[in-house]
């Protein structure tokens, strides 16, 4: 079975680790291709840092700091402390010593002319994540955030989120470099040729958004024969973690499973939401003028991944929805 997924960082990585567990438990032979968001990427101290690629690689490869969800397990902060001693900022984004090695190898290879896809493949030779990990694009795309504090200006997503904790209201998320970016080799083919496509509970605005903004990606998802199943990142009116609530507010999209489902409905065949949100989401995604024609089949489950087993269960349910084995469909 060929499975393709788009993904951001922590939430998507934990879900996809659960997916690999669910596939193993079902004894299903599958090739999983993960298309990672690179809009979070940032150059710091001359090093190219790719947070979502690294979070996916470390999480699926068994090297992630589990409590943080990003960075290397058991890491230390000597390089960061030395940089701070030199007053070499920024001090709000710290790179662990082990993590620095990843950025050194990546930066050296990029400098030698390798593409980000080739770099990622090389790094995965070590980590063996159990999936084909593709950057969404080999051209740099950086998500910035337009804020008014008080004059209108744009800051890198990492500065808005890590330094500012997404507290300054955002007015928009421009994707710098998008006009010169195309999907990386293999991305569109993976989406078109998949038997199942999954959209994990990643931030719909700044994690899935940049991938979906690349030319051809939405068309590939709309055109693929595969069922496209998304998993809501919101339970009740609250996002499970991260900055999705602040991002949705910036776009005037309700922080609900229905609101996020509305953002993705043109590419979704099915939307997996928490049981508590099932009725409201079905109602919202069923066209009032065509009550019999719900263009997205809404399914309910316990959406919280409390631990690794929870992620296996959730991913297994998403798989079952894709394979048409899960519960009643919308309206039924
Ligand atoms: N997040 C933080 O809140 N503080 C940090 O200092 C930080 C450093 C960092 C270094 C490497 C990396 O891959 C990720 C890092 N992150 C940090 C997390 C990062 O902001 C997130 O992974 C996403 O990019 C935001 O969704």
Low-confidence spans:
328-332
Question: What would you call the quaternary organization?
Answer: single chain
Number of helices: 13
Q: What share of the residues does DSSP label as strand, in percent? A: 15-25%
Task: List SSEs in N-to-C order.
Answer: EHEEEHHHHEEEHEEHEHHEEEHHEHEH
Shape: globular
> In the CATH scheme, what's the topology name of the domain at 2-39 and 186-327?
Rossmann fold
- In angstroms, what separates the terminal alpha carbons? 28 Å
Ligands: ligand FO1
Strand order across the largest sheet: 5-2-1-10-11-14-15
Can you count the beta strands?
15
SS-derived structural category: alpha/beta
Q: Roughly what is the average pLDDT, rounded to an integer?
A: 95
Q: What proportion of the residues is helical, as a percent range?
A: 25-40%
Radius of gyration: 19 Å
Most strands sheet: 7 strands, parallel
CATH architectural name of the domain at 2-39 and 186-327: 3-Layer(aba) Sandwich
Written overview of the protein:
- This protein is of the alpha/beta class and 332 residues long.
- Helix content is 38%, strand content 18%.
- Among the domains are: 2-39 and 186-327, Rossmann fold, CATH 3.40.50.10680; 142-176.
- The chain has helices spanning 10-25, 51-61, 78-85, 97-111, 116-127, 157-163, 187-192, 208-213, 217-223, 244-250, 257-264, 278-285, 308-322; strands at residues 2-7, 31-36, 42-44, 47-49, 132-135, 142-148, 152-156, 170-172, 175-176, 196-199, 228-231, 234-235, 238-239, 270-274, 297-301.
- A hairpin with a 3-residue loop joins strand 6 and strand 7.
- The chain is globular.
- Residues 328-332 have low confidence and may be disordered.
- The structure holds ligand FO1.
- Residues 9, 40, 49, 51, 54-55, 70-71, 93-95, 99, 158, 161-162 line the site of ligand FO1.
């Amino acid at each position: 079975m060929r499975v393709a997924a788009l993904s951001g960082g922590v939430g998507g990585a934990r879900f996809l680790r659960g997916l690999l567990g669910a596939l193993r438990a079902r004894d299903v032979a599958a090739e999983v291709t993960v298309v990672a968001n690179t809009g979070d990427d940032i150059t710091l101290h001359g090093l190219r840092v790719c947070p979502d690629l690294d979070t996916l690689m470390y999480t699926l490869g068994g090297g992630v700091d589990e409590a943080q969800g990003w960075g290397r397990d058991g890491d230390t902060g000597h390089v960061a402390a030395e940089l701070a001693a030199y007053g070499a900022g920024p001090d709000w984004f710290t790179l662990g010593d082990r993590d620095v090695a990843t950025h050194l190898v990546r930066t050296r290879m990029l400098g030698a002319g390798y593409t980000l896809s080739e770099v990622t493949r090389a790094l995965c030779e070590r980590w063996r994540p159990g999936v084909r990990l593709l950057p969404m694009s080999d051209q740099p795309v950086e998500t910035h955030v337009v804020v008014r504090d008080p004059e209108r200006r744009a800051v890198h997503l990492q500065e808005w989120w890590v330094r500012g904790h997404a507290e300054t209201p955002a007015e928009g998320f421009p994707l710098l470099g998008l006009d010169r970016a195309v999907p990386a080799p293999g991305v569109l083919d993976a989406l078109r040729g998949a038997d199942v496509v999954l959209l994990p509970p990643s931030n719909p605005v700044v994690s899935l958004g940049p991938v979906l903004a690349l030319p051809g990606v939405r068309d590939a998802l709309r055109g693929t024969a595969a069922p496209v199943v998304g998993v809501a990142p919101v339970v009740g009116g609250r996002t499970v973690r991260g900055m999705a609530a602040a991002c949705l507010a910036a776009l005037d999209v309700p922080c609900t499973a229905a609101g996020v489902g509305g953002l993705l409905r043109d590419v979704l065949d099915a939307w997996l939401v928490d049981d508590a949100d099932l009725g409201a989401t079905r109602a919202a995604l069923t066209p009032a003028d065509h009550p019999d024609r719900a263009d997205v089949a809404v399914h309910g489950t316990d959406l919280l991944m409390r631990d690794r087993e929870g992620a296996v269960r959730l991913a297994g349910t998403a798989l079952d929805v894709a394979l048409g084995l899960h519960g009643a469909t919308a309206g039924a």
